[in-house]
Fold this protein.
Amino acid sequence: MAAPLARFPTRKMIDSVLNFLFPVACIICGLPVLERRHSSVCPACWNTLEPVPQPICPRCGAPEAAIEDRCIHCRTGGTVFDFARSAVLFNDTAREIVHHLKYSDRVSLANPIGMRLRQTLKEGFEGRLVIPVPLHRSRERERGYNQAELIAVTLGLPVASRLIRRRKKTPTQTGLSRSQRAHNLSAAFELRADVDGMTVILVDDVLTTGATMNELSRVLKRGGASRVEVLTFARVADGISRRSRPSAHLP
Ligand SMILES: [Zn+2]
Ligand SMILES: [Zn+2]
């Protein structure tokens, strides 16, 4: 008589073996993370992420009051893209998660981030082609990956990673004003294929002032894109960034 087929180990069994061999400490609070699907952030810390506070502008998703569906930036021509939403507010937890995804090789964080973004995609996105915000080649080589691309491939839609090339290595945008950022970015991107009549989704980890997204949207619209949508994990909201460490973990 044939031996019964070995049963596949459950997720839980695999996790406990991995936790024994390679324990993971939460990058935020330091406690062990027992379920690997959370990557290197424990469930309590994931729970300290906050949605972007309402009301938001129906077009750009900024937490701003809107008149006739447009906030002050959208009404005064400050928004080139047609629609934007972010999964969470850029609070302390989001900052840590993005920092580790970008600078300390915690690439598996892209999966739980992607899980949240797949929910956000249901909030009115029409595009079926995803374009990760490109890094300059030399920066991508240094880092070994483009974090926007890691997030983009988790969304379950076609991804066009090489559609736009970053032409020059733009100095860091940190600390620059809105207009300085726009100047810094002009002519930074080159579109390498036709997007005539297409609706596309630009994806990145954080939306700060929107200067990069605006410049990319300009390039895409010049190339014929009919609608440019923007999806990011976190959104910086001027003056709204609460401390969010889980109090249970504080000494
Ligand atoms: Zn934690
Ligand atoms: Zn707006």
Q: What stands out?
A: The chain has a mean pLDDT of 87. The beta strands are 83-89, 129-132, 164-166, 189-191, 199-207, 227-235.
